[in-house]
Automatic annotation (TrEMBL):
Keyword field contains Signal: yes
Organism of this sequence: Streptosporangium oxazolinicum
Signal peptide span: 1-23
UniProt key word Signal: yes
Gene3D superfamilies: Glucose Permease (Domain IIA) (2.70.70.10)
Top-level division of the source organism's lineage: Bacteria
Domain M23ase beta-sheet core: 89-180
Pfam families, sorted: Peptidase_M23
Keyword annotations of the record: Signal
UniProt protein name: M23 family metallopeptidase
CDD domains found in the cross-reference section: M23_peptidase (cd12797)
């Protein structure tokens, strides 16, 4: 790896004493939407530690935009205690400085702070996922989410950097960890991306399996409690979905791309509750437009979207 400085064992000791985490800090920029500028999924709540079972883990993706290839290494730093991974791409030191880092799975931001003087993580984002799982993204150049923000899988949370403790000089890379429960370092788990365990100690991977399929589902985009009630194909370019949450009476619309994945192209999703102003999300998006949500219990809705040259506009329907 391209580390120009070696993290000391004191780093590991500090982490062990701290239980691998520090109290959440609100430091950082205001929450940002996913890379496509839509909203985020419902929050995931952390639960007590439990046995690490692969079937319980979220469906993690590589923490970079789909289609990008990154080299991971778990043995190039003396600070590594278990299954942590340092990621780089490019042929020179700092070639990836400022590159986008995304959430490996949906969840809630538990830490967004500069922790260089505490554990040498520098700018750190921790995302808490369902089932007691957490992911750590360290040494970031910038953070684009704040504590308490709900993030979607694939949403930008920061950029690759080389922040650490004062005087600890390293080259740009992303330090990535997956943890389950507490008890550092025993709570660090092997990383799994797109259902496949990382090939320790080193492997080069392409995010989202090469970008051949959209990594987002309508349910992930709209959030917990939403189920698909209708859909319409927009040619081969995308599919627009209408979802409903029976718990709160909210509708949600998202247009999920099927082609030109990872490339920003014109995409639209809209939702109109009868008697109210239409809500629209439109722009050049890499993976999907939306989510567009509105409460409509017992009220008809009109919904639709656009991608490429195809458009769908429903009548007022789904009036339950």
């Amino acid at each position: 790896m391209r580390l120009t400085g070696v993290l000391t064992t004191g780093f590991a000791l500090l982490l062990a004493l701290a239980g691998g985490a520090v109290a959440a800090s609100p430091a950082g920029a205001a929450p940002a939407g996913p890379a496509h500028t839509g909203g985020a999924v419902a929050p995931a709540q952390a639960t007590p530690a439990r046995a690490a079972t692969a079937s319980m883990a979220p469906a993690f993706q590589l923490p970079f935009p789909c289609g990008q290839a990154w080299a991971g290494n778990s043995s190039a730093s003396s600070a590594h205690r278990s299954w942590e991974i340092d990621f780089n791409r490019g042929d020179s030191a700092d070639a990836d400085l400022g590159d986008t880092v995304v959430a490996a799975a949906a969840g809630t931001v538990g830490i967004s702070a500069h922790q260089g003087s505490v554990n040498r993580f520098g700018n750190l984002v921790r995302i808490d996922h369902e089932g007691g799982w957490s992911t750590y993204y360290a040494h970031l150049n910038s953070r684009s989410v704040s504590v308490g923000a709900q993030v979607a899988k694939g949403q930008q949370i920061g950029t690759v950097g080389k922040t650490s403790a004062p005087g600890n000089n390293i080259s740009a890379h992303l330090h990535y960890e997956v943890r389950l429960g507490s008890g550092y370092p025993g709570n660090i788990q092997k990383a799994v991306f797109d259902g496949v365990t990382f090939g320790y100690p080193a492997q080069t991977l392409t995010a989202c399996g090469g970008g051949s399929a959209n990594p987002y589902t309508p349910q992930e985009i709209c959030g917990s409690g939403y189920d698909v009630v209708d859909s319409a194909a927009l040619g081969t370019a995308a599919t627009v979905y209408l979802l409903y949450n029976t718990a709160n009476g909210n509708n949600c619309v998202t247009t999920v791309k099927r082609t030109s994945l990872g490339t920003a192209t014109a995409t639209t999703a809209y939702l109109e509750v009868q008697g109210k102003t239409r809500i629209t999300d439109t722009g050049n998006f890499a993976y999907y437009a939306g989510p567009v949500r509105a409460a409509a219990p017992g009220t008809c809705v009109k919904w639709g979207g656009k991608a490429g040259n195809a458009t769908y506009d429903s009548p007022f329907e789904h009036c339950g």
